[in-house]
Specification:
InterPro entries: CoAse (IPR045121), NUDIX_hydrolase-like_dom_sf (IPR015797), NUDIX_hydrolase_dom (IPR000086). By secondary structure, this protein is α+β, with helices and mostly antiparallel strands. The protein has helices at 2-17, 23-36, 42-52, 70-80, 85-89, 94-105, 111-116, 166-178, 233-238, 263-276, and strands spanning 119-130, 133-141, 152-153, 156-158, 186-190, 194-195, 201-212, 225-232, 240-244, 250-254. A hairpin with a 5-residue loop joins strand 9 (240-244) and strand 10.
């Protein structure tokens, strides 16, 4: 279906370049052609709704398109393309682990961001296997907590004075929150820090692997965590969406699982998947 839409779009864009069609007509014709194509799957139906039904009827009488030009149309087509099952199945294996580590180690941290933030925090992006499916684990913060209560997050927290590094911080907090032995955590590498919205914390995501997990048997800390859940990587990739702000900020949203994954947690997962599935996954996180 994706190839069909791309061919249809290319033909209509050729007419647009010849000035025989408006850009609005290009999208309408492509959409109408897609509607006539039979045997939609659920994913393809969502693809059609997200990509071809984006008109702003309130701000502009001419139905100005959110998709501004040809290159962005093609970029959004690429974002929605599926990651092959084989790539997902091998994502956490040794060969891809080594490639991912090399990729992450090439990233250069933003020194100005670190200097701007007064405090540092470390979180673990805990990849795992659940029923032989590569997955990623999340926590739901307890409603008793003073900050970010009831939000989906990765295990982690503020760096203590006794922590020699943010990797140690991430491992210590994960052990405290989930009851996982630190020896069980296989650390891969760290992402470059990102800041919270008020530039108080520089947050470093540490990528790690915690093996086979049964969330129902985890002795997690109920004072800090109200729930623990996992999302298979295949579902996370397939159900990734995004929100675009007027400022130019683009933030990913993952709609799989019991809870919506958004905010900094979604950004860290988006960046991690871009490194883990290089060449098959394109992150949408952007900062202007």
């Amino acid at each position: 279906m994706l190839n069909y839409c791309l061919v249809k779009l290319t033909r209509n864009l050729r007419k647009y370049n010849e000035s025989s069609l408006s850009l609005k007509s290009v999208i309408l014709r492509t959409r109408n052609g897609a509607e006539k194509f039979s045997h939609w799957t659920k994913r393809q139906q969502l693809f059609k709704e997200r990509l071809f039904l984006k008109y702003d009827n309130t701000k502009c009488n001419s139905h100005r398109l959110h998709i501004r030009n040809v290159s962005s149309v093609l970029r959004h087509l690429k974002i929605q393309s599926a990651v092959p099952d084989e790539i997902i199945e091998n994502a956490l294996k040794e060969e891809n682990k080594e490639r991912t580590i090399k990729h992450l180690q090439k990233m250069k941290p933003n020194k100005k961001l670190i200097e701007r933030c007064k405090l540092q925090a470390g979180v673990l992006v805990p990849f795992c296997m659940v029923d032989n499916k590569p997955s990623v684990l999340f926590t739901l913060r307890s409603s008793r907590l003073a900050s970010h209560s009831g939000q989906v997050s990765f295990p982690g927290g503020k760096k203590d004075d006794c922590d020699v590094s943010l990797v140690v911080t991430a491992m210590r907090e994960t052990s405290e929150e989930l009851g996982i032995d630190e020896k069980q955590i296989d650390i891969w590498a760290s992402l470059t820090p990102i800041s919270d919205r008020v530039d108080k914390y520089a947050i470093t995501a540490v990528v790690g692997y915690i093996g086979e997990v049964d969330v129902d048997s985890l002795p997690f800390n109920h004072h800090e965590v109200s729930d623990v859940f996992t999302i298979p990587l295949s579902e996370a990739v397939r159900n990734r969406r995004y929100t675009k702000w007027k400022t130019g900020l683009i933030m990913p949203v993952f709609l799989s699982g019991r809870y919506k994954v958004w905010g900094l947690t979604a950004i860290m997962l988006d960046r991690t998947l871009d490194a883990l599935l290089t060449g098959h996954y394109q992150m949408v996180s952007r900062f202007h």
